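W.,

You were right to be curious about this one. When I first looked at the sequence I had no strong expectations either way, so I just let the prediction run and decided to look at it fresh. Below is the sequence, 106 residues in total, followed by the output.
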Amino acid sequence: MIAESMHVFWNFSLFIFALFVIGIYCVLVTFNLIRALIGLEILIKAVTLLLIVVGFVSGHEALAQSMVITLIVIEAVAVTVAVGIILGIRSHNNSLDVRRIRNLKG
């Protein structure tokens, strides 16, 4: 049973690591605010999957599920606020390019 759980953990951990790297790449490389927000979402999904897999392997599925639900609620609020800020920036600057926003600092 323990060997099977560890096998599941390593298979999923490779996928989670790949998702995490994709999210980091998306956040760091792009100059578009929407793409950066999508990269942040990918990062959060990787953390969510990691919590689920660790909960399964450790035998604490209920704790992992409650943490994931809490993370989803916090994520929804954060994304809503971020989208509002991005829309405000878009209406003020007519652009979502980070390079143009950097030029506005005083």
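Here's what jumped out at me. The chain has one domain: 2-102. And, maybe more interesting for your project: The radius of gyration is 18 Å.

Coffee later to discuss?

I.
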